[in-house]
Amino acid sequence: MAYKVHRSDEEWRELLTPEEYDVLRRAGTERPYTGEYTDTKTTGVYRCRACSAELFRSDTKFDSHCGWPSFYAPLAEDRVEYIEDLSMGMRRVEVRCATCGSHLGHVFEGEGFPTPTDQRYCINSIAMTLEPDEA
Hints:
Blueprint: H1 9-15, H2 18-26, E1 44-48, E2 54-57, E3 61-62, E4 70-71, E5 80-85, E6 92-97, E7 103-109, E8 119-123, E9 128-132
Antiparallel strand pairs: 1-2, 1-9, 3-4, 4-8, 5-6, 6-7, 7-8
């Protein structure tokens, strides 16, 4: 897929910390309960850490107690892309930023959370930055 934001691997390595690069560009995962946004209640917009694209609003964030920030929907469907992920011996759906192709996390369905979509976007904190709403 052709992304609006495209950088060489070398450019991504210069732009991102080693930990950010591992998650965003190599589809790594941060350890559960270690991310800065896991329990955040701040109102605002979550952006892709690699390209600053708006991805999620805080009003779709919910407590899933899974160890990573969880959202029930992206800001708009065109903000993310979905990739079938057959790694780790299971079928999952990877979520990537539609602007730059960076790995964000995975989306799961049918887990019974009381949300409007019955979906859980399980997103790495390190893949995002939070832009708080102005008071």
